[in-house]
TrEMBL record:
Name of the protein: N-acetyl-gamma-glutamyl-phosphate reductase
Gene label: argC
Any matching Pfam family: Semialdhyde_dh
Domain of life from the UniProt record: Bacteria
Keywords: Amino-acid biosynthesis, Arginine biosynthesis, Cytoplasm, NADP, Oxidoreductase
Cellular compartments per GO CC: cytoplasm
Catalytic activity: N-acetyl-L-glutamate 5-semialdehyde + phosphate + NADP(+) = N-acetyl-L-glutamyl 5-phosphate + NADPH + H(+)
Purpose of the protein: Catalyzes the NADPH-dependent reduction of N-acetyl-5-glutamyl phosphate to yield N-acetyl-L-glutamate 5-semialdehyde.
Stated family: Belongs to the NAGSA dehydrogenase family. Type 1 subfamily.
């Protein structure tokens, strides 16, 4: 694609955490240009630089209230929806009807089954017929050649991205003991709950506390991705952003550490945003980056994989841009150049400094 004829994009939810990160990534994208950025109808028009000065740089982009009028989107090619699930569910078909490809960061189109959707998200989907038409897009698991007529791309949740990247290589290789269930315990920073004020996430209330025990909405998504039931316990942590997911599983007899490591190396050899690291990753290794760091340890038949990622980037906005790059046949690292310069040098240091923990 000629970078002079950029794809025209709109970002909905641009005043929120993930939406603002989308604007930052697309601000420097060689092939995609944001022509409209919207907040809800409740908000007044505001310069992006005022609400996200750390991200906006020199941009003079204005975020406008969205009135529901999609006629203003006449020349738009693609839309990113960083909206509450209900709002995404309602808006997506209107955009699709105008020929606009939709990249939805919410949970509105993550399940093909309407009953499972209602059970998981707590409301009846307004367009159940559309659920089966959406493609669930974990970037590392997409086939670049399978996007002929699809126009509704559902971006995974942040915890499912971490847990799936951590366990898919062993699940797909049938390395886990089928009589056991993987256990995923993941801590997330407070931005996972979005930008709106909320007592549970206010400064004086946040501690370290599990929530959604046995019933978090990301559990069925992880289980579907891995084709196995899973025990999932999320924990809210007292810091702004980043997830560390500790995934514990039992290997089948006969599966060795070498076989496990080989599966991970094969799965991620060509993936620029997944790094196999030699020491347990920390939030600060991945926060503000599009990377998922994976640490793999095996003792006998016990497997521990620890995944770390930024919930707003690899868990939301950067994954959406990765997916758009794949869908439009663009180079995988387009829009991520600034990370691949500075941050990868730091990442290399992380890998080299850790004592090897696995065979
Ligand atoms: N936060 C994460 O770590 C994360 C990770 C993965 C996926 N997600 C998903 O991504 C979506 C956005 O999450 P977020 O955390 O970025 O949210 P957020 O910070 O709370 O921002 C929500 C955005 O949506 C806008 N909005 C709210 N209701 C709307 C409506 N009815 N119509 C149009 N716009 C509306 C808000 O505008 P106003 O400012 O005007 O209210 C704001 O721009 C959610 O579905 C979330 O589940 C979030």
């Amino acid at each position: 694609m000629d970078s002079l004829s950029k794809l025209q994009a709109v970002v909905f939810g641009a005043s929120g955490y993930s939406g603002s990160e989308l604007l930052a990534l697309l601000h420097n994208h060689a092939y995609i240009q944001v022509t409209h950025a919207f907040a809800s109808e409740r908000s007044s028009a505001m310069p992006w630089a005022r609400i996200a000065p750390q991200l906006a740089g020199t941009s003079d982009l204005v975020i406008e209230p969205f009135t529901g009028d999609t006629d203003v989107l006449a020349n738009v090619d693609l839309a990113f929806l960083a909206l509450p699930h209900e709002a995404s569910a309602e808006l997506a078909p209107k955009l699709l009807a105008q020929g606009i490809a939709v990249f939805d960061l919410s949970g509105a189109y993550r399940f093909a089954d309407a009953d499972l959707f209602a059970q998981t998200y707590g409301f009846v989907h307004p367009f159940p017929g559309l659920l089966a038409q959406a493609t669930y897009c974990l970037a590392e698991h997409l086939n670049a050649n399978s996007f002929q007529d699809i126009a509704l791309y559902s971006i995974p949740g942040c915890y499912p991205t971490a847990a799936t990247l951590a366990l898919a290589p062993v699940c797909e290789s049938a390395f886990l003991d089928p009589a056991t269930v993987p256990v995923v315990t993941a801590i997330s920073g407070v931005s996972g709950a979005g930008r709106a004020a909320n007592l549970r996430t206010s400064f004086c209330e946040v501690s370290v506390q599990a929530y959604g025990v046995f019933n978090h909405r990301h559990r069925p998504e992880i289980a579907r991705n891995l084709a196995t039931d899973v025990v999932f316990t999320p924990i809210l942590g007292p810091y702004p952003r980043g997830i560390v997911a500790t995934c514990v599983a039992q290997l089948r007899g006969g599966v060795s550490a070498e076989m496990v490591l080989d599966a991970f190396q094969k799965a991620y050899a060509d993936q620029p945003f997944v790094r196999l690291v030699h020491a347990p990753p920390a939030v600060q290794h991945v926060a503000y980056t599009p990377f998922c760091d994976l640490y793999v340890a095996v003792e006998g038949q016990q497997l521990i994989v620890i995944a770390a990622l930024d919930n707003l980037l690899k868990g939301a906005a950067s994954q959406a841009v990765q997916v758009a790059n794949i869908v439009y046949g663009l180079p995988a690292t387009t829009g991520f150049e600034r990370f691949l310069g500075g941050v990868s040098a730091r990442a290399a240091a992380v890998v080299d400094s850790g004592a090897a923990q696995h065979d």
